[in-house]
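Before the break, one more example. Copy the sequence into your notebook; we will annotate it together after we see the structure.
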Amino acid sequence: MFNSEGTIQGLVYNETGVEIELKGGENFLAYSSVSTKKCYFSGSEVGFNWLEDSKLGLYLPWIEEASGISIVTFVFSM
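Here is what the structure looks like once it is written out:
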């Protein structure tokens, strides 16, 4: 995450993708060798960017009610 005190609080892999519990806000960047099919932020589908150089990015707003903790789910297969 850029310009943030963000941290990964939890990480769960499953048969369709990965769920990440994050604390923080701003821009998120990860590396993924394959494109994500869908991305969910706290249960709602959101847009994301995936570039051919394997960069996977999205913007995470700070959610005050949750003390800045969000759940991001990347779906790789359906």
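The domain at 7-75 is CATH 2.60.40.1180 (Immunoglobulin-like). The mean pLDDT is 87. Try to locate both features in your own notes.
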